[in-house]
């Protein structure tokens, strides 16, 4: 009997670091401005029953969550159609935190990706690419970053950058720390064309990641787990990375 996988697991648990990339799920969890807070209704507790149980009401795209292609694309795959092999990827993290500190609305460019590749090598096919902006370090109450005119301000992916990753590097998926794929400075004007593009390429994306700064630029693995929801367009996800120890 082959027990090699047990040895692999033992090595992963003992020789590598595990990083939780997920926000705790509660009514206070950061989420897109258009959604209501999670509602929790207690059904029973250990005082009046033999078990605790609660009902939870929330939109699928809440907190750290996965977006399936069907989120925006007519006929796109739903969560129950995502293959389990699509829940784990080689992890590449593009750190643009300094540029975001200088410009809240910074948009990732193709040049940013090429600069990363000059340092770390070509992004591998099937990789999960994270835009590290540092945004998850903010107080959740300030993540929308409203200006005096009531407009939101935060960084996002550029359309040409995503096209480069999909068409030239054949990546598997993307993730980011913000509540939207695209910066608000353009999303309203473009009708969310950047988010539509990645989902229209039959890729999933993960929004509102945290702790990505704890991951190395390359060499890690990311696991993105979520329910097999029939006709689901999105759902809170539990994401984590396994990375080499320093």
UniProtKB/TrEMBL annotation:
It comes from Anaerosphaera multitolerans. Transmembrane segments: none annotated. Pfam families: Cyclase (PF04199). InterPro entries: KFase/CYL, KFase_sf. SUPFAM superfamilies: Putative cyclase. PANTHER family: CYCLASE-LIKE PROTEIN 2 (PTHR31118:SF12). GO terms for molecular function: arylformamidase activity. GO terms for biological process: L-tryptophan catabolic process to kynurenine. This is Cyclase family protein.
């Amino acid at each position: 009997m082959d027990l090699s996988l047990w040895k692999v697991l033992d090595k992963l648990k003992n020789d590598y670091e595990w990083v939780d990339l997920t926000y705790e799920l509660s009514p206070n969890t950061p989420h897109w401005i258009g959604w209501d807070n999670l509602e929790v209704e207690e059904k029973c507790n250990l005082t009046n029953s033999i078990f605790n149980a609660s009902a939870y009401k929330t939109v699928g795209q809440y907190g750290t969550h996965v977006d399936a292609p069907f989120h925006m694309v007519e006929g796109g795959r739903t969560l129950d159609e995502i293959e389990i092999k699509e829940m784990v990827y080689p992890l590449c993290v593009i750190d643009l935190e300094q540029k975001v500190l200088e410009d809240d609305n910074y948009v990732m460019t193709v040049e940013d990706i090429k600069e990363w590749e000059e340092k770390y090598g070509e992004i591998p096919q099937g990789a999960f690419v994270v835009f590290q902006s540092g945004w998850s370090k903010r107080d959740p109450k300030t993540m929308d970053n409203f200006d005096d005119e009531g407009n939101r301000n935060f960084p996002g992916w550029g359309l040409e950058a995503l096209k480069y990753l999909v068409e030239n590097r054949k990546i598997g998926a993307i993730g980011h720390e913000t509540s939207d794929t695209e910066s608000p400075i353009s999303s309203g004007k473009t009708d969310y064309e950047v988010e539509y593009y990645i989902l229209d390429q039959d890729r999933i994306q993960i929004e509102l990641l945290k702790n990505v700064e704890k991951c190395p630029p390359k060499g890690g693995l990311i696991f993105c787990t979520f329910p097999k929801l029939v006709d689901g367009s999105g759902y809170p996800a539990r994401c984590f990375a396994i990375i080499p120890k320093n």
